Amino acid sequence: MARPDVRDTISKISSLPTLPSILTQILATAADPDSSAIDLGRHIASDQSLSAALLRLVNSASYGHYREIKDIATAIVMLGFFEVRNLALSATCFRHFAGSRRSASDYDRTQLWRHSVASAMAAERLAKRLHVDGGSAFVGGLLHDIGKVVFDVLYPDEFRRAYQKARLERKYIREVELESFDLDHSVAGELLAEHWNLPHVIVESIRFHHEPHNALADGRLASLTSWADFVTYQSGLGENSNGRDTEAPEESPVLYVPEAVWKTVMGELETSHERIDSFLGVLRG
After folding, report:
1. Mean of the per-residue pLDDT values for the chain?
2. Residue 99 pLDDT more than 60?
3. Nearest of 166, 117, 167 to residue 142 by alpha carbon
4. Max CA pair span of the chain
5. Per-domain residue ranges for the chain?
6. What is the C-alpha separation between 49 and 233, in angstroms, rounded?
7. DSSP state of 169
8. How far is the C-alpha of 68 from the C-alpha of 66, rounded, in Å?
């Protein structure tokens, strides 16, 4: 079977559906410094399925509230704007991208989403500890590997062969993707993010999460995403397409991450496995 070429991949990505309107609204709210809890609550409440999923999450054992939270407005008051925003983003993305546990290629997207949620948590925690603006950190971590879903959806047979080869030859999946598709998942993710009209800083963090030193718009977000990806693998929350262990990102001129900081976040993630699995279990319903 002839391998797909770049033009074919770009054409197919351009034909994929756009983002669900609710996710577009939540992302816009997240990016707008003037948005309010009322705006966020209104968007979430307009989607009954999302509202139900979010209320299941906030009433789950992970949060352990002494009384049941019955509406989104109360959830925002008790948990805060950013926590509810992040939960809504996670729930919406999981619903649309994680799919069934097994895909046509037999790639485990639930494991990928487990890694993505953990990376989002890690990016946000790194931003807080480094005292840098982390407004987009959670989104960058959450979507950094979306290009793998692109390959899994568009070319399931080729993607299966790629990740099997990566494991067999002990290579990074991105190395084999270049051989199989002429581009890797970071570029495929960039193309999809552009098709979705995501903010440029998010597009760039997806594109350069393996080479943050090449980012132009906001190298700090690309570096945060890169470090979050690494820390998440180190904490045992990776996914199964790579055939070798990840390495620490190259030192960035715009963001210095001391070893003590990333190891602290790694330790926090190591104790969060059960919570993340519970979180995804609630979303699966």
Report:
1. 87
2. no
3. 117
4. 59
5. 6-284
6. 31
7. T
8. 7
Residue found by looking up tokens 């996670």 in the block: 90
Residue 64 identity (one-letter amino acid): G
Q: Is 108 helix (H, G, I), strand (E, B) or coil?
A: coil
177 vs 278, higher pLDDT: 177
Amino acid (one-letter) located at 173: I
Phi, psi (5° rounding) for residue 246? -75, 155
Contact 235, 270 (CB under 8 A): yes
Q: For 13-25, how does the pLDDT look when each residue is reduced to its tens digit (9 = 90+)?
A: 888 877 778 888 8
Taking 90 as the threshold, does the pLDDT of residue 105 lie above it?
no
Residues in the chain: 285
Within a 13 Å sphere around the CA of 21, how many CA atoms are in the beta-carbon half?
3
Contact 50, 84 (CB under 8 A): no
Residue keyed to tokens 């991105």: 174
Give the side-chain half-sphere CA count within 13 A for 138. Answer: 18
Question: Encoding tokens for residue 266?
Answer: 């790694």
- Residue 101's pLDDT is 46
pLDDT confidence tier of residue 10, bands split at 50, 70 and 90: confident
Rounded CA-CA distance 247/101 in Å is 28
Structure tokens at 230: 């690494």
Output the CA torsion 177→179→183→186 (10° steps). 30
Is the predicted pLDDT of residue 229 greater than 50, yes or no? yes
For domain 6-284, give the CATH number: 1.10.3210.10
Q: Name the pLDDT band for 100 (thresholds 50, 70, 90).
A: very low
Q: How far apart are CA 6 and CA 117, in angstroms?
A: 29
CA–CA dist 163, 195 (Å, integer):
25
3-state helix, strand, coil in the chain (%, to 5): 65, 0, 35
